[in-house]
Design a protein that fits this description.
The complex is a heterodimer. Chain A is α/β, with parallel strands linked by helices. Chain A is built from ten helices and 14 strands. Chain B is built from nine helices and no strands. Classes of the chains: A alpha/beta, B mainly alpha.
């Protein structure tokens, strides 16, 4: 399968933060969700892909080409939606399009106008009069009107009401159905990622925790809950990120077979529960939980 | 690049630079002064407003990120700002060029006043080159917010230098000092036509250096 985006050992250092050794791959025709808490490095990664930041080391390949060497060529087929609207509020939609379109060799005004009609955006409308959701759709119309093969979106659903959010997510799925496009989008709303992403990359503190298919994550990551008394140093070695309450604990495990073996009788009796973990649960336990070799709080 | 120049022009709708461009030459003409200050000064003021307004909106909406993420090279973005400067100058001069004969026709007192000449064009070009060549490299290095002070300085320096040199020559010629008068005489002996060639060439040189510096700085910038 053709790789649309491939990142190897990408590093970007700041005084107080380092995006450290990021490696991931997105194939043609798939959606990848980038999740992680605020400040984890999602936007930094997206900015590096878009050449808004300069990498310290590592390699970014897009459409099989080096992103630094073939920047202009790659960007002809790259669509993007940035976290904050970067459109001039004072300009009309058609004026903004007139400014942008000459830079794209494959710009198709008919497709652009079709999308505007579909989204209910008028060409004479000032961009400042568009709602956040409409601006997002306008960004999408721009991205789709120059035949972008890879669409990169930074928090596209952030700040949208649930109905518009759902609409946007449906739209992204529809875009992908056309076959040769791929989408990389960051979000801290894990349900959005859960809903449409084929692959999920979880970044925490500048490092990749995992970058796997949604099916793999659902099959592999389980949450286990039970009384605190069943948790000891021996058993907790199966867990990643243990969260303790007064009498209970919850933890994430990627070793469900071992857990079944050790806790089988408790699981069968219903004293403990093990089920596939949601993205939120994985994030929460990874970030807030303890590991077995760490001292208890 | 042209579309970025067009963008800077479109953004002026909310600003005052176009009003300056259209109205100030008329006001200047009605001031009935035969000096070119009345044409140059509104040009500098309008030029300042033109570029400040466009850059302020670029900063407000963070559109530099937008264009860099698009297939637009940083060199093109830099070049477009210098072209916007040229566009404003040409537009301003064109308006003066159109209005000048009309004024002469309808206002007899302006018969001897020449609002547009090669000398004036050269002076416009020199002032613009100096102003933007100081401001733009700093703007592209540190961004709009941090370079606002540089814009003021560039504005004052370019206007001040222009007025100052003329004033200085006039003042110095009144001082009775042999070596000074000899030096002045040397420069004054240079035919005026030669200055009209030297100044544009020097201005182009300054602009080329400034573009190179701006491009170098902008390529280092992160967003």
């Amino acid at each position: 399968m053709d790789s649309i985006l491939e990142i190897n050992d990408l590093t970007k250092r700041y005084d107080t933060f380092t995006l450290d050794g990021i490696s991931m791959r997105l194939d043609e025709g798939f959606i990848m969700g980038l999740v992680g808490p605020n400040g984890a490095g999602k936007t930094t990664l997206i900015k590096l892909i878009l050449s808004l930041l300069r990498k310290d080391s590592g390699k970014i390949s897009i459409f099989g080409m080096d992103a630094t060497d073939k920047e202009d060529h790659i960007k002809q087929q790259l669509g993007f939606v940035l976290d904050e609207s970067s459109w001039y509020d004072d300009l009309r939609v058609r004026e903004m399009a007139a400014v942008i379109s000459p830079f794209y060799v494959d710009w198709n005004s008919t497709i652009f106008n079709d999308y505007l009609n579909r989204f209910g955006i008028f060409t004479d409308q000032r961009i400042g009069t568009l709602s956040k959701g409409m601006k997002m759709k306008f960004s999408l119309a721009v991205a789709l009107s120059h035949n972008a093969r890879l669409i990169i979106m930074d928090e596209p659903t952030s700040g949208l009401d649930p109905i518009i959010r759902d609409e946007v997510l449906d739209m992204l799925q529809e875009i992908i159905r056309e076959g040769d496009r791929s989408i990389l989008f960051s979000s801290h709303i894990s349900s959005d990622v859960d809903k449409i992403a084929d692959y999920i990359t979880f970044i925490n503190d500048g490092k990749i925790v995992f970058s796997e298919s949604r099916e793999f994550i659902k099959d592999t990551y389980h949450i286990i809950k039970g009384p605190l008394e069943y948790l000891d140093r021996d058993t907790s070695r199966f867990f990643v990120g243990i969260r303790k309450k007064q009498h209970t604990f919850s933890a994430i495990t990627t070793r469900s077979n071992m857990v079944l073996k050790d806790f089988g009788r408790y699981l069968n009796s219903g004293k403990m529960i093990m089920e596939p973990a949601s993205i939120d649960e994985i994030m929460l336990h990874t970030i807030k939980g303890e590991n077995y070799d760490q001292p208890s709080v | 690049m042209i579309s970025l120049v067009y963008k800077d022009f479109l953004l002026q709708r909310g600003g005052k630079s176009l009003i300056y461009m259209a109205i100030m030459p008329i006001i200047s003409a009605f001031a009935l002064s035969t000096t070119i200050f009345n044409v140059i000064m509104p040009y500098i003021a309008g030029s300042y407003l033109y570029i400040v307004y466009a850059n302020a909106l670029d900063d407000k909406y963070q559109t530099e990120r937008l264009f860099i993420a698009m297939p637009v090279s940083r060199r093109t973005i830099v070049g477009s700002k210098y072209m916007s400067m040229g566009f404003y100058m040409v537009a301003f001069l064109t308006i003066i060029g159109i209005l000048s004969p009309l004024f002469r026709l309808f206002i007899p007192s302006l018969l001897n006043m020449q609002l547009l000449s090669w000398q004036i064009i050269v002076q416009f070009f020199a002032v613009s080159s100096l102003y933007y060549s100081i401001y733009f490299p700093l703007y592209f290095k540190v961004g709009y917010q941090k370079s606002r002070w540089a814009n003021y300085i560039a504005l004052i320096a370019s206007a001040g230098l222009f007025i100052g040199i003329l004033q200085l020559v006039s003042e110095l010629s009144g001082i009775e000092m042999e070596s000074l008068q000899e030096a002045l005489a040397f420069y004054l002996r240079v035919p005026a036509g030669l200055w009209d060639i030297i100044i544009p060439i020097a201005s182009v040189g300054i602009i080329v250096l400034s573009i190179k510096l701006s491009t170098y700085y902008y390529k280092q910038r992160e967003f």
